[in-house]
Amino acid sequence: MVFQLAYFSAAKPGVGEADVHDILRASSANNRHNGLSGMLILRDGTFFQVLEGEKAHVEETFRRISRDPRHSGLVRVVETEREERSFPGWSMGFEKFMHADASEETPFDSTDLSSNESIENLRQKAPELISFMRSLYTRRGMRGAPPLD
User: Fold this and answer.
1) In what order do the strands lie in the sheet with 37-43?
2) Going by C-beta distance under 8 Å and a sequence separation of 6 or more, which residues neighbour residue 12?
3) How confident is the model over 80-90, as pLDDT tens digits?
4) How many whole angstroms separate alpha carbon 99 and alpha carbon 105?
5) pLDDT range class, residue 52, cuts 50, 70, 90
6) CB 133 within 8 A of CB 57
């Protein structure tokens, strides 16, 4: 079994391209070292990340992220055991979308996240967003992922 955790967070004001590249570089190296896989989406200043692997390593990574001053308002929306990884072979996949970018519709709008009155609304959107991430994974020719849920 593989533990999968997904969360939303807001990028702190002033977080720019260089910060995101630093996050990706460090995450890729740390995840590879700890046997984790996953994907990160940045949409209009909102992060959505899926981490998967051994539960202790996933939880430690999440604790490290929660201390990172570039993130705020972390909200766990998925915590589950799975038969297999959703993103095998990706120590850290990444996609960035801007609100004005109509070339790819994401299943959430970052303005929805800031106006949600209930964490449950975020949890309900998470499986759809993970499926969307998996479709990106598949379109980029990654092999080994189980069929989409």
Assistant:
1) 71-82, 2-11, 46-53, 37-43, 93-97
2) 69, 70, 71, 72
3) 999 988 888 77
4) 9
5) very high
6) no
